[in-house]
Backbone:
């Protein structure tokens, strides 16, 4: 998975087409071994910057959350662990490996999220917004709601996992024609391996 730099940290390119699936892709190399996997959410700051980049929290909230996390590192660490568990649950549910317990955890978080919101009037609409009671849980709650929205939509049946060697990144694939997370990365690598295999086979002597 390719990354880009923002606020002095490396985050994965957003290629999934849905924020809940983008969360899944913050852990790279799902189809590799656990020792090969790369977690782009090292700390709570990473989580907030990622959530801001995905449009789950705004600039003002992100700055407030980062300040609050520095004052309460224990809660920030606990929220990050919950996000990582949610990431695993969303992955498993999206690719058809999920069990009832995973769905129950997503459901619980989504309900908690709504209970931490209130209807707020903006210039041109009325919308749900998190209250201060959400505290450091706001990024967790925001992505839990995104996960619930995905799982209850028709899009949930159109999620693919990249077959690239050790990749496994997930993305929406409603047409069914998309094969790779990023053609120029996993697609080209697969083509290069296939070409190398053909070259090797052409050099091998035919069996007598």
Residues:
């Amino acid at each position: 998975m390719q990354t880009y730099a923002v606020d002095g940290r490396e985050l994965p390119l957003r290629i999934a087409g849905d924020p809940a699936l983008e969360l899944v892709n913050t852990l790279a190399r799902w189809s590799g071994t656990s020792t090969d996997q790369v977690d782009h959410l090292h700390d709570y700051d990473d989580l907030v910057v990622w959530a801001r980049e995905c449009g789950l929290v705004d600039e003002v909230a992100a700055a407030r959350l980062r300040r609050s996390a520095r004052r309460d590192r224990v809660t920030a660490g606990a929220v990050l662990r919950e996000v990582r568990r949610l990431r695993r649950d969303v992955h498993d549910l999206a690719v058809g490996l999920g069990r009832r317990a995973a769905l129950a955890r997503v459901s619980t978080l989504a309900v908690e999220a709504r209970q931490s919101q209130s209807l707020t009037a903006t210039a041109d609409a009325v919308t749900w917004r998190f209250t201060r009671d959400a505290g450091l849980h706001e990024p967790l709650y925001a992505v839990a709601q995104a996960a619930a929205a995905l799982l209850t939509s028709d899009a949930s049946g159109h999620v693919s996992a990249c077959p690239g060697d050790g990749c496994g990144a997930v993305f929406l694939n409603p047409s069914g024609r998309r094969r790779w997370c990023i053609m120029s990365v996993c697609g080209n690598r697969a083509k290069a391996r296939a070409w190398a295999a053909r070259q090797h086979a052409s050099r091998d002597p035919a069996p007598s």
Observations:
- The first strand starts at residue 3 and ends at 6.
- Residues 3-203 form a domain with the Jann2411-like fold fold (CATH 1.10.3300.10).
